[in-house]
Amino acid sequence: MSSGKFPLLQREEERDAEVTWEDQQRINQFSRLNVRLENLEDEYKSQKTEKEYLDDLATEIELIDEEEPVPYKIGDAFIMMSLEQAQARVERDKAAIDSRVDELDSQISAITSEMDELKRALYAKFGQAINLEKS
Prior knowledge:
Blueprint: H1 7-16, H2 21-62, E1 70-74, E2 77-81, H3 83-126
Helix pairs in contact: 2-3
């Protein structure tokens, strides 16, 4: 005897739901979009964290003496620059991150919308026999 909330319903749906080539293409597309969405969400979180670091850095730079050179990390190296150069660099980096975050947000929205359409179509045909939710 199978376990589950609706064992007879699931068996009946599995028996009646024939997977066509088009259905398989939708399932594959959903899977590809899901992987892409996860990657974009990871990058989004990373960019937001980087933005927070830059905000903290901008606050710290304001406290530095104007005559002191400021070490600014570029890649794996620190470059000494003037206070004005460091402030300009922080603002430029923050603007670049803001732009990337906006771009990522737009891409995430578009992918989520496309995935929702695929979910509706697949759930309409397969019901409980398919699971497209994140675990």
